[in-house]
Amino acid sequence: MIHFTNVAKRYQDGHEALSNVSFSLDRGEMAFLTGHSGAGKSTLLKLIMLMERATSGQVIVGGQNLARIHKRQIPYFRRHIGVVFQNHRLLFDRTVFDNVALPLEVSGANPRDTGRRVRAALDKVGLLSKEKLTPIQLSGGEQQRIGIARAVVNKPPVLLADEPTGNLDPALSEEIMKLFAEFNQVGVTVLIASHDLALIKHMNHRVIALNKGRITSKDTIKSEALDVS
Amino acid sequence: MLAKSTQKPSAKQTPGSNQKKANNTAGAHVASPPNAFKSYLNNHLKVSKLSIKDQLERPFASFFTCSVIGIALVLPTLLAILLSNIQSTDIDWDGSAQITLFLKKDTSALDAGVIANQLEKKDNIESSHFVSKQAALIEFKARFAMDSVIDYLDDNPLPHAIIISPSPELANISHIEALKDRLLKIPEVESALLDVLWVQRLQSISSFVEKAIYLVAIMLAIAVLLILGNTIRLAIENRKEEIAVLKLVGGTTPFICRPFIYMGMFFGLGGSIIAIILIHIILAILYGPVEELAASYQSDFDLSGLNFESTLLLLVIGATLGWLGSWLAVRKHLDDIEPT
Asked: Could you give all domains of chain A from N- to C-terminal order, each with its CATH number?
């Protein structure tokens, strides 16, 4: 589903965020991306959703070579990728319902369909009763779950998350991670950037470790690799 | 309008290719319903409603923006109304472009009458009318009430005159002047007077005003574009996060632009409406003084205001400027916002 081949990303200021990164994530697989802050986790995720473009190397997502996707086609490409952010990026001037409906609205979904699908997504994250509230009335954990509902509402085949538990306490974090695992169980390819090593160990999924822009480990859990980072 | 044309082709091509991709990936559901056009129209309707609602929620800010645009539209419109009033004033052309031939002193009334008759038969002369010096004196006395002064004179100082009306085909003043020159060659004619100077002046004034209106209109149109561009830029700035999120969840540029384009169009329309109201008020105030002025010139000049077509035109101009201004602003600033 996601294939990186010798990917490098050098920013305009000369900083090389990623160098010689190669890995593959199969369809329906779930993996964690770990490393210190500045190790290149966010950059890697940005490359997958075309917020940035690779300086060299090849990124293939869902069979599409991202280098060949024209700027104008990026929106259509992004509709196949759900993204969850650390600060969830909800819009506070809209209700929970409208926030979750956003991806459907931009893709021109039928309004009747929208209601059904938004409620299905809210139900999945356990917040069906809060659809009429605004995000500001919710707790941090709830806000993050709304962010997840928004990411999955149009059933994307790929789900990315950048430090989704960064602002949450351990119990809430585990809850959120379990939610991701549930989506993975129904066939969604999930890639989560996180430095919460204790939690990652606990989840028992594949781990890709980054250090200074290079992959140090990309197989199943290797505790020594984790200890390094 | 333009959002439509850029949206349609891309919306047609890419969902198709994406659906293929979706099918061979995880069998994902992609929101590209068969009634794409309907949902596209729905979005336009929704966005335009939201945009109006948005502006009504901030009545003062919206009113000020519309007022600035309205005032900018008032000036050229008023000038244009003034010009069209001048141009449509019934300039008594046939009457005004008269040539008065003053005959030599020794010409007898009989000869003068014969000349007048002969002239009337000429092609480019509509009519010719002999005015004897006696008649001229009577008219002179009547008009200027100077009986006593005239009475002191021994004899009538006025010459016989022939008043010529050129035929209406001689629309151009230079033709009439050529006719005057030919008439001057008649031996009995002492001098000829062509009273068209004021017509010429009026014509050159009105063409000057016309050019001035264009210049003022262009400058004010640019001002309106800048005002709108700035307003839209601020609106974009205020909704930066929303734009970034929309880009992240797959909103196309036309989709993201749409609310701002509508916003600009409604500001332009609002500006036009304010301009129309202001113009009616100004014309109502000016009506009295203009009537008085016209009356003092014995003119039945009647100030005409905005008719239906020009009202409509003003609305269209306002909306178009609004659309253009916001489109330019959106073009310039939307690309700067990339999700990070």
From this structure: 2-80+157-228 (3.40.50.300), 92-155 (no CATH)
